[in-house]
Amino acid sequence: xxxxxxxxxxxxxxxxxxxxxxxxxxxxxxxxxxxxxxxxxxxxxxxxxxxxxxxxxxxxxxxxxxxxxxxxxxxxxxxxxxxxxxxxxxxxxxxxxxxxxxxxxxxxxxxxxxxxxxxxxxxxxxxxxxxxxxxxxxxxxxxxxxxxxxxxxxxxxxxxxxxxxxxxxxxxxxxxxxxxxxxxxxxxxxxxxxxxxxxxxxxxxxxxxxxxxxxxxxxxxxxxxxxxxxxxxxxxxxxxxxxxxxxxxxxxxxx
Length: 255
Hints:
alpha+beta; 3-stranded antiparallel beta sheet; 7 strands; 33% helix; elongated
């Protein structure tokens, strides 16, 4: 670390990745030289530990944009007394520090995460077979008395206009208008899946959409929506600081 080429390499990495924190071990230089290094990296804070006999040394650099520097500290005996203890960071209000709330009994946040399609799967040739199995019907039998369970609530003329079948070209155009990796809905499948595996899935999508316009029925799973809050500004803390958005499934967007 004492060599100038190493320092230049570190500066190049810092300029490329813009980290909020840099941790350097085994620098083999004293604290004073670490401070000189910090001047070149231009951090807002530095902590260093001197080397011992030309070995070791630790150096930690950070800037003021680093989040959640606030921490709660407890020794092992106290943690054993309160096994369910947890720390929650609260929104910062007119300060560069986050208030922390220590709760002696905090429910686990390890809930099952919803499914999310990964773009890297499109590079695996075996994914075609997996999606083919997933989207191939097993041909279940449905009872005949399912028809007519719902009474019509619109006029015949309106219903005729609503159930006019869209063509496959119209459905494909609607699908292509959706960005590939736009935030997916609860099923976790973006429009990229329908496009990349079009030979397998697109005929099913076209058939399903046309069936909706012919039957007037839609699966409730298609209409399931995630509603999330997007902050309008930094350090948002009140309802007016957030904008609600709805994350719908691709099938629903196409319809």
